[in-house]
């Protein structure tokens, strides 16, 4: 029986549940013996000029070995994203200006970690406050400039004026609905905060241990910042405690740690506090969206326009590119004849933005799914029926959308039907009608979402090495970089399936750039369809290599040989009991090892549909998510245990954005959500049980049919819950409430609607 598709318990978990993970800050590597501890002095102001920095008192504090400022730093300021405005460079330590609360202005190195905070407090920085700009619309006015030399706060604009649609774009529509909505900024808040350690060897090479989602690209970024050849830098990943997109690539602090280590001639360690993480680590989302949808009263959607303003934060990073995915995925699952989108990205005196679970695709789904509900409400049509009427049909695939994406496979109407049937959608609507008729204080809301996402986009190439050893054990080297996804188990399953060697004898290694020089890491739900397929293909090729070598030993034609998976041996076909040779024996004679690089060339497009049920207390505004049914179709399921775990995590984060999470800055750019006491991360008590509906539609892009699932739950659940809460109070005249749907926001919307109806 095949191991694929079975619930294999994760091989990683016993260590995590007993000894615990070994994160970067936990390392006891002898190469880090005598390491100094880095504490960064951070700006308390969002926007200010620096008149002077006095570090003398700090240098004389107990345990202090050295203090550095930007004036000492010879690492050139860097453009952290190539497509950004070329004037928007980030210094590794601020020199003449700070642009967000938490920006580093000095580096303190101490013998013990605890000494750093006391010494950092002694660094005297003379700031001259400047006006801050936090609101994206205000930033677009260019009245307060973060980079005067740039002459603008606009980082980039993603539209061409010559393609602007004319006034007749919605002319043939009987109904047109438009609304501005907010896709709020959120924090990744991984279990492990950012961390790095570095030392320089006698050979002139630098080794960095750090917490990142992709070792190879992080190595290349750091090497570029330091002006050194990437071959002279080794980057090693210990266990990584979550990333959610915020740990893609390198942080500038990694390069600073390496530079400081070289400067003082000793290893240096850095690990940030939780508050530093909440103010300094890149954050996600942060879009202001204007949605306009038009069509006929029979439910035919004819035109859709999406205008986005995205917040890059103070120093443009990956967040600059994410509106590209929002625009590409703007039409969602729908066959809309006319679609137009624009995006402007603007710098503000806030923390930089980058990827967060879904990275541009949840924003697109949120916009189109709110638009569909607004349109359904306007024409008096059931939102599920409206969606089914307008989705792309199975026979239309592969389908190129007006956003420019080529969807591979999908059965969108079937997904909506299945999840609605699982939820007893008609029964829920009947209960909702009864509550409304009675005027209950607890009103029922039902939200539907249909989504499609792009996975593996832009990172199509991945490699794997599979080697059988003389003792019968197997090593798999992979360019992917797990941080909770279960690759050690999944890749072992793929190798085991082809080699006939048990999972427990297979070790998966990742995240060491000397062992694995190339690789694209883990992000964008890419791993299985790239790294996993590479492992599968490498294992298949290894069996072929083994057969070629066994041909001489068994004195048989290669074509007459096969792998006996039950015994991990090459045998003659149809000759039971005949002579055989094991893979281990072949490995003892000559290295049995295969390297394979897989290029998918195209992304895949998983899809699904969610139904959420909420209760809203119309007297207090408190909304509670009672049930959620999720159908997430990512093709064939390799390991249902891991697959469902990924869905659970994604659904939780989608619900969290809809109901609780929001990074908030005041008008002066001061962060108001810098601790977990202020930032609303849900616990199990705030989440319902998840009802998972299964459907498997293979892709045509790879031979295994795999698509990605890591971000799917987030993309589907957030709009379903958002729509459900608004649906619960829509009979009161409420058409929209921005996320997060806190009791205050819901209560305010109810009372404003009551005042309006009383006029």
TrEMBL record:
<protein>
    <submittedName>
        <fullName>Xanthine dehydrogenase family protein molybdopterin-binding subunit</fullName>
    </submittedName>
</protein>
<dbReference type="InterPro" id="IPR008274">
    <property type="entry name" value="AldOxase/xan_DH_MoCoBD1"/>
</dbReference>
<dbReference type="Pfam" id="PF20256">
    <property type="entry name" value="MoCoBD_2"/>
</dbReference>
<dbReference type="InterPro" id="IPR016208">
    <property type="entry name" value="Ald_Oxase/xanthine_DH-like"/>
</dbReference>
<dbReference type="Pfam" id="PF01315">
    <property type="entry name" value="Ald_Xan_dh_C"/>
</dbReference>
<dbReference type="InterPro" id="IPR046867">
    <property type="entry name" value="AldOxase/xan_DH_MoCoBD2"/>
</dbReference>
<dbReference type="Pfam" id="PF02738">
    <property type="entry name" value="MoCoBD_1"/>
</dbReference>
<dbReference type="InterPro" id="IPR000674">
    <property type="entry name" value="Ald_Oxase/Xan_DH_a/b"/>
</dbReference>
<dbReference type="InterPro" id="IPR036856">
    <property type="entry name" value="Ald_Oxase/Xan_DH_a/b_sf"/>
</dbReference>
<keyword id="KW-0500">Molybdenum</keyword>
<keyword id="KW-0560">Oxidoreductase</keyword>
<feature type="domain" description="Aldehyde oxidase/xanthine dehydrogenase a/b hammerhead">
    <location>
        <begin position="19"/>
        <end position="131"/>
    </location>
</feature>
<dbReference type="InterPro" id="IPR037165">
    <property type="entry name" value="AldOxase/xan_DH_Mopterin-bd_sf"/>
</dbReference>
